Amino acid sequence: MKFKKRKVHKQRASTFHGWGRGKAHHKGAGNRGGRGRAGSGKRSDGKKPSFWKERQGKFGFTTKNRKIICAVNIDQIEKDLPLWLKHGIASKKGSDYEVDLTKAGFDKLLGTGSPSCALFIKVDFASAGAVEKIAEKGGEVTILKTMKKKAKKKAAPKKKADDPKKASEDESEE
Q: How far is CA 121 from CA 49, 70, 81, 128, in A?
């Protein structure tokens, strides 16, 4: 008995297993015409309007050594005080409260809200508004760290021109 070879067997070595022009058909993208930005006419003047505003390629950067600061507002401290008293983050002395925000996992104190009682807070960083609001109620903010701001480099002073007329004028002024 003679077996007839299937037509597909002839296409085993070809890149696209199908009939017709190989680069157009049977590449798995269906009716889309391609993948990614294929069909955008991304070369030269032929760019399509839908792609005009988009930037091509990679852009932006992320700093690996940048510390992410976790901040908390005064009103949030007021809400969380009962819970923090149970967990030992805050302690009550008379009508005042002592709060260690570093134990709670916060790095910075911000000034949204107003305290209802005197708060004595320990924190790494604090905004000027938050410190002022807490001081008005008789509390105090202890700042554990200071922000180091990088000084901007000043431009070197411009040298005087080597013009003999200006040099003689400078000498006469002295």
A: 56, 16, 12, 14
Within a domain: residue 113? yes
The answer to whether residues 97 and 119 touch, using CB atoms and an 8 Å cutoff, is yes
Task: Please state, in angstroms and rounded to a whole number, the distance separating the CA atoms of residues 153 and 155.
Answer: 6
Question: Is 138 among the domain residues?
Answer: yes
Overall domain count for the chain: 1
CB 103 within 8 A of CB 123: no
Sign of CA dihedral 84, 90, 93, 98: negative
Alpha carbon separation from 151 to 69, 81, 125, 148, 154 (Å, rounded):
21, 39, 20, 9, 9
The parent domain of residue 80 ranges over: 74-143
- Alpha-carbon distance of 130 to 108, in angstroms, equals 10
List pLDDT tens digits, range 25-47.
666 666 666 666 666 665 656 65
Q: Report if residue 108 sits inside a domain.
A: yes
Which domain CATH number covers 129?
3.100.10.10
Residue 166 CB contacts under 8 Å (≥ 6 apart), including other chains: 160
pLDDT digit string (tens) for 141-168?
Answer: 999 987 666 666 666 666 655 555 655 5
